[in-house]
Each structure stands twice: as structure tokens, then as C-alpha cells.
């Protein structure tokens, strides 16, 4: 097995995508530290991994505080003797438009996603650098962090921030042999299950049927298990040369996202004054403006939700 002898931590792995990641890592031979705030979910996840013949223990604690990060790393080392892989998946949502978003809505999401990723990676890296055997850091991003999404100021900020940290950490940890990558999953989750556009795909998954080809191929939208293979690959020795990347995955599709770069560069001797910009903008700049948000193709008639 590709991860035989490795030890992984997966935050937010009591259910959903996190559980799929933990199970796939275990299938490939890794021992797994499961984490969730729900004690029953964490215990069930451990039992599911053990039923596969894998090894797992649970840490029931909210991600964000440094104390949780320390407990996760300590549990990995005490239970299995080492730490090789960290997957930062834990998250919460508090969706609402900007003018209705409270301080608590913003702080809660940023604390779990962004601060939780920072504190957990920091603690894992401290151990990995001291151990001197390299490691794999896999941080979970989102299309929202790449493109924006209506009603998700807090989530977009956190997920975009995670990608910024990943690029920075890839530079800082290269000499230590620690790779750092972001994965952008697109799959049936508790969040996408509420979106009418994905209703046919969600219904198929819930009924144990195959997600229709339109969703799997055209949208790159599938199941949690479709994402898990990439997580295991990035955690393996086969991915030792992959670092600092943002990789999208879902259904039948995988994508490597570009890093931000200038879409247009123009020069004006003496600088760009107000008058110069007014004159030049329609001709030189307007055509290079970038779109925001995700843009989906029109749903085929067979997948359109029935009218209420």
C-alpha cells in the first residue's frame, strides 16, 4: 500500500469529505487521527476505519485553538509514533450577505477555517522539521476562495487566505522536504445539497445511484470519494515534487489552478494620471477585466428542479 507506515491527521473528519479522506488514507495503509467536534461522529469514523482493517484514534475538539493543534500532533505521535501527513479540512459556514453579516458570523468562520489551518499546520510543521523526515501538508480550499460567491464573505476570505498561506509555506518548507498544497474539492456535501442546481446529482448520490455524466464530466461534480484519491496521492512519496499548487478535483475532472498573474500590463511615461486613465481605459483596459463568481452551463431539461 502506498502509505504503509505513514501517519496522518485529518481535521473535520467525522463525516462528509473529511471522512472520505480519512478512509482513503487508511485504505492506502496510513494510520489516521480523526478529528471532529461531534464525539459520536468521531467514534463512528474510527470504527469505520477499523472495520476496513485500518488504524485510527479520535481527538474530539474544535479546530482553531493552538491547544487543539497540540493535542492532534501529540496524539499522532503518542498513538502511532510519528506524523507524516496533515489534511486541514475542518470548517463551518455562516452564510449571509455582507450587510447582514455579524461580527460573530465572520469571526467564527475565519477562526475555524483560516486560523485553524494556521495553528494546525504550524504545530505539525514544528514536529516534522524536528523529525527531519519531510512531510505532506494538504489544505482544503474552495471554488469560493478562488472565484467568490454571493453571501459568503467570511468563507471566501478564509479560503482565499488558505491558498495564500499554502504558497508561502511551500517556499518556507522546501528545504525541509515538506510539501504544501491546496485541494479545491467539488462534490456532494451538506453545503451543495441545498443548491437547487445540483439537486439531481445530490438525489442520485443519496439513492446510491451514479451521479449523472453531465455533473461528473461537464461540471467536475461528484462524490466525496472522487476527491479522496487526490488526497492520498498528495500524501504519498509519489507526490514529492508537487508543492505550492492549487488543484481542483471532482467527478471525472481534475484541474491545476493558475497562480494570480497580471492579465494586462501597460505603461505611460510620467505615470497614469486621472485624465490619462479616463482616455485610455475603454480602449486599453476594459477588455482585460476579469469575471467574478462561478458560471455554470444551463442545466439540461432532465435535471431541472420541478417548479413549485
From TrEMBL:
It comes from the Bacteria. Pfam families: adh_short (PF00106). GO terms for molecular function: oxidoreductase activity. Keywords: Oxidoreductase. Coiled coil: none annotated. Residues 6-194 form the Ketoreductase domain. Belongs to the short-chain dehydrogenases/reductases (SDR) family. This is Dehydrogenase. It comes from Micromonospora craterilacus.
